Fold each of these.
Amino acid sequence: MLHKMRQDQESPARVLFLDHTAKIGGGEIALLNLVRHLDTRFTQPIVLLFAEGQLAERLRLYADTYVLPLENSVATAPKDRLGWRSLLQLKAVWLVLRQIWRVARFARRLRVDIIHTHSLKSDVIGGLAARLAGIPVIWHVRDRIETDYLPVSVVRVFRFLSRIVPNFVIADSGAVLSTLRPNTVINHSAEAPTKLKKSRSCVVHEGCVVEDLRDPSRKSDGVARIGLIGRISPWKGQHIFIEAAALLSKHHPLAKFEIIGAPLFSERDYETSLHALCRKLKIEESIEFVGFVDDVRSRITELDIVVHASTIGEPFGQVIIEGMAEQKPIVATNGGGVPEIVVDGVTGILVPMGDAPRMSQAIDYLLRNPEIADQMGRLGRERVQAQFTIQKTARLVEGVYRRVLGYV
C-alpha cells in the first residue's frame, strides 16, 4: 500500500535519517549537527544506522536512534573499490536486497513521512526501500559523482538512479550537484521553496556552530603554527603539505606544522610514507602528527593558519568553515566546492591542487603579513556567520521537507 501523502501540519513530520556507518567523518558530523538543530515543532527526527558506534552514541542524545546491522563486508566497502564486480556478487546482492526490505518494513512500522538518506550506500538502500514502502525520499549527496572520485560504473549507475529514485536531491555544494546532474540548471538555494516546485534538486551548504571566540591557551610565543585537519589519505594531500612545510622551514625555522587526523586501516601505509617523507626532507622536528582529535575546535584555536590540501576536488570542506568560524586565515586548494566557501584574497588564499611551491608561497605571504592574515580571519568569520551557520542549513533543509510534503 502506498504511503499516504501527509497533508496536515498540526504535528511534526516524522523524518527518518539514514546512514550506513556509525564512524565519525565529515558527512556524519554534518548529519549530527543537522539533527541537533532542527525545529522539533515541525520535524521529529528518527535515525536509523547500519552499525553501532560513536555516531549512534552521540545521536541518541538528540533523537530516537536505531540500528539495523548490515554485514561488514558491504557496509565498509570503500567507495573507490565499488564497481560492477562487487555489486554483482551474489552474496552482496542478497545482503543489500535483504537490507532494503528491512528498512522498508522499519519505515512503515514507524509511520515515517520522509526518508532522508546521508551517504551513497544509504542513498541506494534507503531510496529503494522508500520506493518499496511508498514513502518520499530525499538524497543528501556529499560526494562528487565524478570519475576522479568513483569508478566509472558507479558514476553512471548513481547518476541514472538519481533521476528515478529520489523525490528530491540536496547537494552540499554546487560542485557536487554539477557532477551528479551535468548540463542542468542548478538551484543554489532552498530559501524560497515556492520557487522549487518544478525542480527536484538544490544546493544547501553545510553549516557549523559559531561560538564566541576562545583565547588560545598559548599566548604569543613567537612560534607560528600551521595545521592541516582531516583524515590521513592520499587525496587529502598531507604529502603536499609536508613538501610545502619543507620549503617554508628554510625561511621560518621556528614554524610548527600539525597534521591533525588519523588514517583508516587501509591507509596506514600512506601514513608510514608520510613519516618517511619527513625524514627524507629532514623536517621531523617541525612536523607533528597529532592523530585523531575529538575536539577539533580546541585544536583550531591554537593554530595561526588553517590549510586545506586536497589533490582532487573536495565536495565541500567542513574543516574550512570551522577554521573560518574561529577567525583563522585559510590556505586551500582551488577545486570542488572550496571556491564556494573561500573568497580568494579576502578570506583566504586559493592555490592549485598538488602544487607544494604555491602552497608554500601562500603560507609565507600570510606569515610575513600578519595584519592581512588577521583581516582575512575576521572577514572569514563574518562570512561564516552570514552564510554557513548550522541554523541556516537546518532552516533550508526544513524548507525542502515542506516542498516534498506538499506544504508549499
Amino acid sequence: MLVILASMSVLVEPQQPEPPVKPDAGVIRDARVRRAQRRNRIAGAVIALLAIGALIAGLLESSNSNRAEHARATLAFQRARQRRQARGWYISPNLTGGGYGWCVMEPVGASCPTVPTENERTSGARVIGTAVGSVGTSHEERITLLLAAGVRGILANERSTQLHTRARLPYGLRIAQIEYPKKTWTEHASTLLATGANGRPLGEINQESAGVEANIRWWEKPERPASGPCQIHAHGLPALQGEWGHVATTISPYPARIIGRAFFSCIDTEYYLHNWPLETSILLDAQYPGAFPAAIPGMKPITGEPELFWAPGDWHGEITATRNGNAWVVVAGGSGLRQREEVLHHLTASVRL
C-alpha cells in the first residue's frame, strides 16, 4: 500500500464578535489567542499521528504481502529443486542470451553452458566428449562427462578408471562420471582418453566446457531493452515488467561440429509478474540457426493447449515453450504452469537472420 501524506490545514470556527473594550480586554484577547493556538497545535498533532499510523499500517501490510510472496516463491523454488533432484541427471537448454548448448543438471547442481563436440584437434587427436564439471575431496577426484555414443571407458592419465553412467540422453549422448585417486591426477599430465569396445582408443575428452558465447548487449531497468537480431516484447499485461536481459549482437553457427543437436539462445529477458521472476528466451538451432530446431529434451504437449509444450528446465525452473517459425520461445520459472502460459500468450518474439 502506498500512503501519500499531503499538507493539511486545520479549520477552526471563527470567534464570536468581541464585546466592547474593557481595561483588561488585551489580556483576555491574548488568552483566547493562546487557547486557539493550543487547539491548532493539538489538532495538527492528532492529524499527524493519524497519518503516521496510516503510513505504518500501510508499510506493515506491504511488508506482510512481500513476506507472503517471498514465502510462496521460496516454496516454489524448493518444490522445483525437489523435482529436479527426483529427475536426477538430464540436460536442458542454456537460456542465457548469447550462450550455446546445454545445462547439465545433476541432483545437487548444474553446469552451464556446455556443448558436446566431435572434431579433429590441430594435433590430429579426435575429440569425442566434454568434461562438464568436477568435485574433489582430499583423496578422490570425480569428473562429470557428456559423452558421445560408443564410449565404453575412460583412461585417466593412461590408467583405466571406472565409468559410471548417470543418464542416457537424446542423440546417443550420455552423462557419466569417473572417479580416481587424487594423487594419480596431480602427479601426472591431466589427460582423459575415451575408449570403445575392447579398450580401443576413440579420442580425447575436451576438458573445457566448449561453451562458446556470442557477443552480447546487456541491459537493466530503467534502461531501454538492448537491440539485436532477436527481440522479445510484452503486451496486454501491464503487470508484466522486464527487469534485465542479454541480447546477442549477431547470430552465428557454432564454430565446431556438435554431437547431435543443441540450441543457441539469441536473447533472454527476465520478467517479473506479481513478484514472480520468469526467464524468457528465444532458442535457435546452434549449428544451423535458420533450420527447424529440434525438440527440447523431455518435452511433452500441454493438455488443452495444442501449441504449448512443457519440459524440465535448468536452475530457473520448468519450461513452457511454443514454436515461432524456426525458433522456440520459452518461459521458465514463475509460480507455475498457468502463469507461464499466461506470459507466453502476452509475448511477441521476432528473429532477424
Amino acid sequence: MKIFENQIELKIRAFFFNAKTDYLPYYKNFSFMIDTTEDILLKDILPMIKEQNPDFSYPEKELIFRVNNLVVTGYEKLSTVIDRLGVELTIDPVLKYRSDNGLIINNHDFMHQFRRILGHYASKEDLEFYLRLYPVHYASETFNYNKEYIGDAILILANKMISDGNPNYIEILDAINDEFDGISCCEYENNLFKDVDYSKDIDNLKAMIPNKKKISIIDSLINKISARKEQRSYDVDLFQPQNIALYVGDKSSAKLIEEIKELVESSGSTFIEFDMATKKAGQSIIDTNPKIAYKKAGKMLLEAFDNGATVLAFAKDKDLEFFSSIHDEVESAVGRDINLNIVSLSKLKELTQAVEA
C-alpha cells in the first residue's frame, strides 16, 4: 500500500529462536517505510529488524534464508522481491530445524556431505562448483521428509563430475545411491527465488542408476486402481455448495488455477487454495522410496483437507489414478483418515456446468 509517492509500507513477519534459551520458535511483526527510489538489497532489511529487536540474529557470511518459503541470498534487490512476492514478507531460516539462533544455522552438514560422499573423487574445480550450490543444498525439498538426505547439491555435483568424464563414475553412482538417504529420496523442486532449474541434471543422474527391482511398485499400484474404484465411491453434488481445491502438481499452471477458481465460484461453491497444489507429491519416487512418497502424498492431501476442502479435483487424470491407488497406504502413513471426495478436472467442469444450467 503506497503511503507517499515513491514510498511503500513493508510488513515483515520474522522468525525468532535461540537454541540456548528458547523451547520453541516464535515470530514477531515489523513495519518499515521503504523508499522505492533507493537501491535497497534484501540484506539491508535485516539490521532494520535487529534495530527494533536486538534478539533478531542473522549470519554475516553465507547469508541465505527464506522469504515466503523461497530460498534467497541477501543480495537480491528488495524491489525485485516485492514485485514478485508483494509487501507482506515472512522471513525464516533456510531450514528451521537447523536454526541455532534466528537465521543462523548449523551448516556443518554441507561440507560433511561433500567430504563423505564425493570428496575422494573430486577436483578443486568440482569443489568450487559445489560451494556455489550452497543455497541449492538447503533448498532441497526432500529435507522436509528426511533430515538425513544427502541434498540436491551433491546430486547435481555428481552429475557434473560424471558428465565431465570423471573415471570414478561407478564409485560416484554407488556413493549417491544410499538406500535410505540418497538419490532414491529425491523428487526435485526448484525452491530458489531465482529461476534456476536442475531437474534435467537430476533426471540424467537417475537414468544412470541401475534398476534393481524386477517389478516396479508403481506398476503394482496401478494394477490396483480398478479394484479401488469399486471399493471407493466419490459422489460429488455441486447442487449443494462445496469447498473445492485443485491439484495441478507443477508451478506452470497459475492460469489454469485462476480459471478453475472463477468456474467454481460462479457455481456457488468456494475455491480452496493450498501451498502444495503446485508441488510434486510422491509420483516420481513411489517405485524407489515409497515411504517418502506416501508422506509427500499425505502432506498434500491433508493440506487440502485441513484448509477446508471437501472436494479435491486433479488437473491430470494420471494424478487422480495415482492418488486413488495409494489412498489407504497414505492414510496409514500419516495416521489419519482423509475424507476427501476426489474427481477429475473434466468431471468437475461437467458438474459445474450442470449447476449453472
